[in-house]
Amino acid sequence: MSDRLPPLTALRAFDAAARHMSFRDAAAELNVTPAALSFQIKQLEEHYGAPLFNRLNRRITLTEAGQALAPGTANAFAALSEAWRAARRVRESGMLTVTAGPAITARWLAPRLFAFARDHPEVELRFAATLRILDFARDDIDVAIRFGLPGPEEAKLHKAMDIREWVTPMMTPALARDYPTPDALRDAPLIHQDDTAWMRPPADWPAWFRANGVTPPAMHGPHFSQADHAMDAAQAGAGVVLGRGSLADLALRQGALVAPFSIALVPNAHFRVLCPEGAQARPEVRAFLDWLAEQVAAMPDHAADHDLIDAADVPAP
């Protein structure tokens, strides 16, 4: 058997069929007919000199040779795709794609972006606001702003910034007059945020009441799946939210919300600003990272007005 590589189209057909374990589904992915895909795989098997698939009744399986070939083709096409995306990003110099959660995008980034656009008209900025963790290579992401706990993949990334988060009750000035103490807050309409329910240890309403030495009330009130919606409800006077300092910055500065109680909880989750290692040297990435650092440095230190307690130090129920 010759070491000469078979046609790339035949290897592509094999890779798709090996992933789907279906000629029909592989053909749909590659936008060809099942007959055309079957022909390409047949060409590959003739080039190899033996079957790579077992054709069974209504299904296929890989032969021993097919099992040996599949991981290498999958890795090769993944590497080709990543290299192609990297080459496209070089050609599309000046385009910058940033991913962040919907809340930080709506309440922190969006109100400030006019300054970046004014100072960097050469950069075309695109945002992917999602709670899903996007892949830098697969999803063409240049910079990610993530909230939560770092995953193992982040060890290979460049961390441009690490930002502490804290939470404390926030409400309109009118509601603050009605509920002047933590004990009085037991009777307030409490707003709940389901997007932080995963935190362990929790930094939620029961934890905040216990940190104040107050028995938590029954947990009634509206639930929101996204923090920015919960903050909007609080600003409208619908209730009291356990607000996050970063998301509430502008509302606190403008007086739309107040944070009248001294105790704030610090969760183990925090913000990280990440990019692929080496990407921080690209002019558009560097400009955005520098701008982010300036914006964070310019924020008032609202946390200085509070006694910060690590959520892990709050007494258990």
Describe this structure in words.
- This protein has 11 helices and 13 strands.
- The strands form 4 sheets. A 5-stranded mixed beta sheet has the order 4-3-5-12-6. A 4-stranded mixed beta sheet has the order 7-10-8-9, covered by helices on one side.
- The protein has helices at residues 8-20, 23-30, 34-48, 64-91, 102-109, 113-119, 173-178, 205-211, 227-235, 249-254, 283-298, and strands spanning 53-56, 59-62, 95-100, 124-129, 143-148, 157-163, 167-170, 190-193, 223-224, 240-244, 263-266, 270-276, 307-310.
- It has 317 residues and is of the alpha/beta class.
- Helix 1 crosses helix 3 and helix 1 (8-20) packs across helix 4 (64-91).
CATH class of the largest domain reads: Alpha Beta
Number of helices: 11
Question: What class do helices, strands and sheet pairing give?
Answer: alpha/beta
Shape: elongated
Low-confidence stretches: none
CA-atom Rg in angstroms: 27 Å
For this entry, give a set of tags:
single chain, 317 residues, alpha/beta, Arc Repressor Mutant, subunit A, D-Maltodextrin-Binding Protein, domain 2, 3 domains, five-stranded mixed sheet, four-stranded mixed sheet, 20% strand
SSE blueprint:
Elements: H1 8-20, H2 23-30, H3 34-48, E1 53-56, E2 59-62, H4 64-91, E3 95-100, H5 102-109, H6 113-119, E4 124-129, E5 143-148, E6 157-163, E7 167-170, H7 173-178, E8 190-193, H8 205-211, E9 223-224, H9 227-235, E10 240-244, H10 249-254, E11 263-266, E12 270-276, H11 283-298, E13 307-310
Parallel strand pairs: 3-4, 3-5, 8-9, 8-10, 11-13
Antiparallel strand pairs: 1-2, 5-12, 6-12, 7-10
Helix pairs in contact: 1-2, 1-3, 1-4, 2-3
